[in-house]
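pinging the channel bc i need a second pair of eyes. not urgent but kinda urgent?? the chain im working w is below, pasted from the shared doc
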Amino acid sequence: MRRRHVKWVLLALSVTAAAALLPGAGQSRPPESDGSTYTWTGAATLTVDVKPWGGGYVRSDPYLIDCPMACIRAFEPNREVKLTAYMTPGHTFKAWEGACAGQGNPCTIKVSGAMDVTAVLEGQFVPPTPPKPPAPPGPPVALNPSLTVTTNGLTATLTGTGYNPSSSISLDFEWSTPPGGWFLLLPGATTSDASGSWSYTYAENCDFGGAYTGPVAFGVTASDAGGASASDGGSMTC
């Protein structure tokens, strides 16, 4: 029952132990207690300290000590305990004082009576390097759209380059002949590829509100979804 009680006390301590690791001003402080007074007749008491305070922390195996915070604990007499010092950034392990003197890190002792151990660290706290801010977005890609129109009979091939990549392309036709003019809008007629290029084939049926025979002259403007546009023209004979 005693061991179970110790384990429950330990579980409560582990949640708050990390909060005690804030870097200090490089000064040593008295061993801190989390308020636990659990002991029994004949128990051996181990007191752990860390110098300088804020340079690191010490944990025990079995896990009862987690200092600074839980620094004073009762053990069964002659219980073997391993103590390990962990350093905060900028600190290194120097030596043990007290019952662990002369040992490296970690150290192992048998707790008997009242024993003291101090982990002596050296160095200066080095705050973590903050992450670099993301690079600002570069200037928008310069667009220089162009449109080329070639006609073959009643078929016109439109070829565009320099438009926004992967963007819908709308075509706006305007005929100057036949007399009276004629307009045609083809929204989203095609889509540019990853390089901003595209092509489209248009076939004329010579129906301008009725059958028409004669020359046909037209201009066409191609625009993408980002507003880049270019114009060109051609002629046919119906």
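so The chain has two domains: 2-123, 146-237. and The longest helix spans residues 2-17. — does that match what u expected or am i reading it wrong
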